[in-house]
């Protein structure tokens, strides 16, 4: 019985190490979200930090509200793409095992 507990602890430590590696990999990842058929692009890291914003000059020919809407949509698109990539990476790590609701990994 003691051996099985030790084995479970080793497996848990190995999983923790893999999760740490996955978190580091996700943090370095850069994903682009866009809106307006590419008029506005937002580059975001896996930690949801915005690295770059690219705005087509034609956006400034429209009214301010149009530009603001495109920015919000591009940021939301980037967030959704980062979340999807994080979920996919964690699914690979956990072998497709569904996590309980509210247990969001890695962040």
UniProtKB/TrEMBL annotation:
<dbReference type="GO" id="GO:0043590">
    <property type="term" value="C:bacterial nucleoid"/>
</dbReference>
<keyword id="KW-0963">Cytoplasm</keyword>
<feature type="coiled-coil region">
    <location>
        <begin position="5"/>
        <end position="32"/>
    </location>
</feature>
<keyword id="KW-0238">DNA-binding</keyword>
<comment type="similarity">
    <text>Belongs to the YbaB/EbfC family.</text>
</comment>
<dbReference type="GO" id="GO:0005829">
    <property type="term" value="C:cytosol"/>
</dbReference>
<comment type="subunit">
    <text>Homodimer.</text>
</comment>
<dbReference type="InterPro" id="IPR004401">
    <property type="entry name" value="YbaB/EbfC"/>
</dbReference>
<keyword id="KW-0175">Coiled coil</keyword>
<dbReference type="InterPro" id="IPR036894">
    <property type="entry name" value="YbaB-like_sf"/>
</dbReference>
<comment type="function">
    <text>Binds to DNA and alters its conformation. May be involved in regulation of gene expression, nucleoid organization and DNA protection.</text>
</comment>
<protein>
    <recommendedName>
        <fullName>Nucleoid-associated protein SAOR_06130</fullName>
    </recommendedName>
</protein>
<dbReference type="Pfam" id="PF02575">
    <property type="entry name" value="YbaB_DNA_bd"/>
</dbReference>
<dbReference type="GO" id="GO:0003677">
    <property type="term" value="F:DNA binding"/>
</dbReference>
């Amino acid at each position: 019985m003691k051996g099985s507990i030790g084995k479970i602890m080793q497996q848990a430590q190995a999983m923790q190490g893999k999760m740490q590696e996955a978190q580091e990999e996700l943090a370095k990842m850069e994903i682009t979200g866009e809106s307006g058929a590419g008029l506005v692009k937002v580059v975001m890291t896996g930690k949801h930090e915005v690295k770059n914003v690219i705005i087509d000059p034609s956006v400034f020919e429209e009214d301010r509200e149009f530009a603001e809407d495109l920015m919000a949509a591009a940021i939301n698109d980037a967030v959704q793409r980062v979340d999807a990539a994080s979920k996919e990476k964690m699914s690979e790590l956990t072998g497709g095992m569904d996590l309980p609701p509210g247990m969001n990994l890695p962040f």
